[in-house]
Here is the input.
Amino acid sequence: MVNILNYKSENFIISSYQKGKEIVLFFLSRNNTISTDKLPKTADTIEQVLPSVFNTTCYNDQGKCFKDEIKNTETAHLLEHLIIEFMVQKEKMRGNKITIKALTSWNWNKNPFGSFKITIKAPQVAKRSFKDSFNASISLMEKIFNQANGQPKQTVH
Ligand SMILES: [Zn+2]
Here is the structure.
């Protein structure tokens, strides 16, 4: 696996890799925030920034549409949908209509509590949109986390 991008904050840690045709992300939710039910501003924030994510198809256990699912789902599952929707939108702006498949999985018997694996299968051409989508998704996730946890910590220079 070739490492692509990494990110670390008070809220979560992410590393991403290229593995053959797939992009694999390892996501660790910190402070026990593993579900969006602890992040009450999730739906409102997404409505403002990326409402099209509500229309994405989601195959979850309960068969809920993503607009309902988003209120109580794993934080990594939210990240998965944000990244693929940003990629789809960025490709659309370039005149490319694409479909991306992704899956979020976890095994806390084997791996640390709060850790997830996200696997993204995107057409080769769409990989150029990954970096921007990764960064845009992180900004949005930080906004959602910080609204729930109070103001972000200030750095004194
Ligand atoms: Zn889903």
Observations:
- The chain has one domain: 2-149.
